[in-house]
Write a structure and sequence with these properties.
This protein has one domain: Alpha-Beta Plaits (2-Layer Sandwich), CATH 3.30.70. It has a four-stranded antiparallel beta sheet. About 35% of the residues lie in helices and about 40% in strands. By secondary structure, the chain is α+β, with helices and mostly antiparallel strands. The radius of gyration is 13 Å and the shape is globular. The longest helix has 14 residues. It starts with a strand and ends with a strand. About 15% of the residues are buried.
C-alpha cells in the first residue's frame, strides 16, 4: 500500500473567493474524487484550525494499492481539474508518498 499525503497553503484570495471559500471549495472537490476514481482505497481531507506561520491550511491523506494506482489517480481527468484549481488558489503545497 502507498500512503499519499498533500498539505496545501492558500493565497488570501484567488479565483473570486477569500481563503476560507477556496479551502471549502478544495475540500468539496477532493471529497468528490473517491466516487469518480476507483484506484482510491482511502481518502481523508482535513482543514487546519491552528493559526501559525508554519501551519498549512488543509491536508489530504490517502491510500492506494500500489505506485501504479497512485500514478493512475494523478493522471485522472477529475484529479487534473483539482490540480489546476490548486495551482491557482494555493501559494504552496508539500507532498509525501511512502510505502506502508
Amino acid at each position: 500500500m502507498i500512503k499519499h499525503i498533500v498539505m496545501f497553503k492558500f493565497k488570501e484570495s484567488a479565483e473570486g473567493r477569500e481563503k476560507s471559500g477556496n479551502i471549502a471549495a478544495l475540500k468539496a472537490m477532493l471529497e468528490a474524487l473517491p466516487a469518480k476514481i476507483e484506484e482510491i482505497r482511502s481518502f481523508e481531507v482535513g482543514v487546519n484550525f491552528f493559526v501559525a506561520d508554519v501551519a498549512y491550511d488543509a491536508v489530504l491523506v490517502s491510500e492506494f494499492e500500489n505506485v501504479e494506482a497512485l500514478y493512475s489517480y494523478q493522471k485522472h481527468p477529475d484529479h487534473l481539474k483539482v490540480a489546476d484549481f490548486v495551482s491557482k488558489a494555493c501559494t504552496s503545497r508539500a507532498v509525501v508518498d511512502y510505502v506502508i
